[in-house]
């Protein structure tokens, strides 16, 4: 069973790992996205994540299901946090387990790349000098799924 | 006048800040497409003119292209460039 969620509270990576794993799996992989203290040469004090929650829940679930189909494992958990985050806090956690490592790496990479392409989440950086700025992002395609019809 | 469609229009992040609102109801003639909605918004003047001519748009939680037709009661979100992760 795959799992995905958009959350306000801090992410506990150890808990996310408990959502995956099976006797046939020889690989368990955990990816964490973390708020860093700098961006484009500016000192960052924190980040505010905004979301279109109803849609983000649906899109994250679709991304995880696509990864499960492509990589051939359904032991996947992906959690994205929104709201106010400090430097060092986890913004996204992706855990995958599979019989061999290749499928786990493939699924994990696919999920984080697709999150950046089309999850309706935005972040505003707070700089140490008190200024704030929306982080430049990517414009999602109208047909974002891999089976894009070219429109 | 009959034939109007009422669209619940949502704005997020930089668009929400720009316009000073997160939600607006827009009435359009029947047969209007996503691009007509964007045109109607931009022609309101002021901050609305700063909206892109062809922003990413989600209709009822799914990304749609500018030619997609709108129906009465649709929820349309203008999606600024996304930056998750």
Question: How many beta-strand elements of chain A?
Answer: 9
- The fold-level CATH name of chain A is Aldehyde Oxidoreductase, domain 3
Fourth-level CATH superfamily of chain A: Molybdopterin biosynthesis MoaE subunit
Strand % of chain A is 35-45%
Number of structural units classed as domains of chain A = 1
Assign the structural class of chain A, choosing from mainly alpha, mainly beta, alpha/beta, alpha+beta, or little secondary structure: alpha+beta
- The Cα radius of gyration of chain B reads 12 Å
Count of alpha/pi helices of chain B: 2
Helical residues, percent of chain B: 10-25%
Mean pLDDT of chain B equals 96
Q: Could you say what the CATH architecture of chain A is?
A: Alpha-Beta Complex
Structurally, the number of domains of chain B stands at 1
How do the strands of the widest beta sheet of chain B line up side by side?
A: 2-1-5-3-4
Largest sheet of chain B: 5 strands, mixed
CATH class of chain B: Alpha Beta
Structural shape of chain B: globular
Note the gap between the termini of chain B.
Answer: 47 Å
Q: What does it look like?
A:
The complex is a heterodimer of chains A (151) and B (85). Chain A is α+β, with helices and mostly antiparallel strands. Chain A has helices spanning 13-18, 53-71, 101-118; strands spanning 3-7, 27-34, 38-39, 42-51, 75-81, 83-86, 90-98, 121-127, 132-134. The longest helix of chain A is centred in the middle third of the chain and has 19 residues, at 53-71. Residues 144-151 of chain A have low confidence and may be disordered. Chain B is built from 2 helices and 5 strands, in the order βαβαβββ. The longest helix of chain B has 9 residues, at 34-42. Chain B has one domain: Beta-grasp domain (Ubiquitin-like (UB roll)), CATH 3.10.20.30. Chain B has 85 residues and is an alpha+beta fold. Classes of the chains: A alpha+beta (151), B alpha+beta (85).
